Amino acid sequence: MSRTLDALLARFEAARKPGPWAYRWAHAHDGGVHEEHVVITCLVHGNEVGSLPAVVRLQEALASGQATFGGRLTLVIANPEAARADRRFLDSDLNRAFAFVEGREGHEHARARELRPILDSADLLLDLHQTGTPSETAFWTYPWDPVLGKWARVLEATTVGITRAPGEGFDAPDLKCVDEYVRDLGRPAMCLELGEKGFHPTQEALAWRTMVRLLRTVDAIRAGTTTLEAEAHEHPELTWYTTVHREDWGSPDRALAPGLGCWSRVEAHQELAAEGSPSIQAVRTGRILFPKYPRPDEPRPTHLFHLVAPLHQHPDVAFSAMLGGDGGRMRIENVLSDMEADIASAEAEEALNHKLALHVREHLTERDGTVVDEDVTRAVQFVTDYIRSIPTILREALERSEGTFAEDKMRRMVTAATTYWQADDDVIPDSEGLYGILDDAYCTLILVQALDERYREQTGQGLVAADLTESNLAIRRLLGPTNAGQLEDYVDEALDDATMTELLESLQADPMAPPPERIKTNDELILQLFNVI
């Protein structure tokens, strides 16, 4: 490998044009047509050499005119010294060195400072990586951003990606990746994992195609002949996964069983430990990502592996509460205000057509054969109060998380709880007045109840003060098993979503103020009327 690597580095140096950069392993191209500056980095980890042949090929193709780009392009070989040593890094991980913490020294921290002016000038970054173990497929990995989601579709490098909440770091806040640094500057930055480390013709071809598509698309957008939105619509959506668990290394004698690669499927409670190692079990069904098998002379990484699971919603929906910075809070408040307007409108409709009262009367007649008007009135008021309670319960949860590290996560859970309410395809048409939004109310509150119960199991404290168990059961009786069953299927799917599992787990580390004592508002007559007791 060294002869091939040395030959590629020599070719890069021979064709290198430094442009404005002092860094020895940066090549600058200026097409002179527009000012968009694209930066492509490779070998941030020294032993991930697979993209280097494609990068050198692009450098030479631009010089010969076989490839064109009208903007500015900088090609960066980030850590050739570690590559020559066939190591991931020499002193410390370069792809965690871009937090620029004062006092940190060594080869990689010095290199990060050398690269900083290039990154500061980037309008768009493509960071090419490889995995340490075999991988079933190439994949994108970055926190969710709708712009990056469109680029992933346009570039057609792969059909899958790993994403996480907008702005969420890959590691600790003081360990920042190169693409994270550029995103923090407000510019698009993408990380593409090509496959297992080493030279592979298929990965070289993939890197080449991806880079060429990127440059052609940037040229076309700057020329005004297309937009990123229009280009994305011409390509299919990806399947997106998210991390649901990171397995800490723990004791030094823990080790993974051989043979695990990226995307290896595992079942809940499956034993993953090597022979002689303490037990390591998968906490849930999913796919392994970034399994670690360090050499004896290498430091232990923070995590043994990540476990990922598919998102059942598009990331735009799953992370909607966090998109747009503080707009997330405003967006949720708009949803809750719209919800209150829907409830007021439905109450006005009920005053005219009495459809809820008719359904209540029918339910009570089936139960007892005779109906007392006072019971109908009392039951209608119970259902009305049940529906009215939703914005109050959700605001209470948001207010308790305000100013804590849990705030963004609580917004995401509240957004999930309101998703069905905002959907057009309802079990009961909204035109039915209060009865028409009862399915929306039930779906929201059984999801809140389920999340609250799971959180209580994990932490001993709840997400909300209201005890919704009996109220929800009463409404279930009124809706009937068919309607209620459809809504419960929807909630089960939402609870299986990887984001919900990850949120509940992460909330344990980001405590909120505990809710007030449990509040139960049902009287025995209502529970008797609805066959709860």
CATH architecture of the largest domain: 3-Layer(aba) Sandwich
The helix count comes to 18
- Please estimate the helix content: 40-55%
How many domains, as an integer? 3
**Largest pleated sheet:** 11 strands, mixed
What would you say this structure looks like, in words?
- It contains 18 helices and eleven strands.
- Helix 10 packs antiparallel against helix 12 (373-401).
- It starts with a helix and ends with a helix.
- The chain folds into three domains: 2-237, Zn peptidases (Aminopeptidase), CATH 3.40.630.10; 241-310, Beta Barrel (OB fold (Dihydrolipoamide Acetyltransferase, E2P)), CATH 2.40.50; 316-529, no CATH class.
- With 533 residues, the protein is an alpha/beta fold.
- The mean pLDDT is 87.
- An eleven-stranded mixed sheet has the order 1-3-2-4-7-5-6-8-11-10-9, with helices on both faces.
- The chain has helices at residues 2-15, 52-64, 80-84, 107-120, 146-155, 178-184, 201-223, 228-233, 315-318, 327-353, 355-368, 373-401, 407-422, 438-459, 469-479, 481-496, 498-509, 524-529; strands spanning 26-30, 37-42, 72-77, 124-131, 139-141, 160-163, 189-196, 239-248, 265-266, 286-289, 303-310.
- Helices cover 47% and strands 12% of the residues.
- The radius of gyration is 28 Å and the shape is elongated.
